Amino acid sequence: MPSLRCLVLDDSSFKRNRSKKVELLATCYDHAKHVYFKGLRMFSLGYTDGRSFLPVAQSALSTENKEMRINEASEVGPDTPGHKRRQMVQQKATLTMLELIDCANEAQIKADYVLFDSLFSSPAQIFSVLKKGYEVVCMAKKSRTTYTCVDGRKRIASQIYSSSKKRRCMAKYLLSRIMATKDDDGSEKQIKMVFVHNRFNRKDFLVFLPTVISLDEQQIVSIYGNRWSIEDFFKNCKSQLRFEKSNHSLN
User: Fold this and answer.
1) How confident is the model at residue 130 (pLDDT cuts 50, 70, 90)?
2) Which residues pair with 69 in a beta bridge?
C-alpha cells in the first residue's frame, strides 16, 4: 500500500448575506450548489495520513473582479502582513493554492500527494504542483480539457469514456487508460485516468487523475477518498465552531 501522507486543498462558502460593511465582501459563486451568494470563500490546506486531519494554512477568497466586489480593502502599510493578506484575498484561487502549498513547504510538512477536485485540475495547475515536488491525485474535468491518447488523438474525458469498452457493471472501476497531458510550454507528462461510477447517479461517471501511473486503480480510488477529510473539517467549522454564523468581524 502506498504512503498516505497527503496535502488536501478545497474551498467552502462563507456566506454573509446580511452584511454591508465587511471588508472585501463580494458576490461569489458556489461551485457545489451552482448559485451566487454574498460573502467570501474559505480556502484551506490540510494534511492527512488516512486516519486524522490537521489544518495547515488557509486564506479567505474574495474575487479578482472589481465589479463583483461590494467593498474594497482598507489601506494598510505596504510592508505589513495585513497588506499581504489582503492581496492574497483578491487574487485567483489557483495562485492562492500554490502559496498555501509553499506554506506547507516552509513548515517542512512531509507529504507525497496533493489532493484536490476538478475545479483546480487544469494541466497548468497540475504541472505547477509537480514543480513544487508533489505528485497529484485529483478529479478530472469531463469536458474542455483534452488529453493525448496512445494513438496520438486528442480527446476530452467524456469522449474517451464513450469510445472505450467498459468493465462489467459491478466492477470497482469501469475503465482505466494511460494518457498524456501537456503544459503550456510543451512539457508532457504521462497520467492515468480511472473512470468509476458516480454513486449518487449510476448513469453518470467520475474520473480520477493521478500523475503516478504505477499506482493500481484501487489504490488511486483509496488515496483520493482521503480528500473527504477536508469536507468534514469544513462541516465542523460551520456546525460545531459556528464560524459562519457567529463570526461578526468586519475585516
Assistant:
1) very high
2) 26
Q: How many CB atoms lie within 10 A of CB 18?
A: 7
Give Dmax (Cα) for the chain: 62
* Residue type (1 letter), 65: N
Neighbours of 141 (CB within 10 A): 17
Counting DSSP H helices and E strands in the chain, the numbers are 7, 11
pLDDT attached to residue 150: 77
As given in the structure block, the three cell numbers for residue 3 are: 504512503
CA torsion sign, 242 to 244 to 246 to 248? positive
pLDDT digits (tens, 9 = 90+) for 88-112: 999 999 999 999 999 999 999 999 9
Distance CA 151, CA 113 (A): 29
pLDDT averaged over the chain?
90
Q: Per-domain residue ranges for the chain? A: 1-111+227-251, 118-225
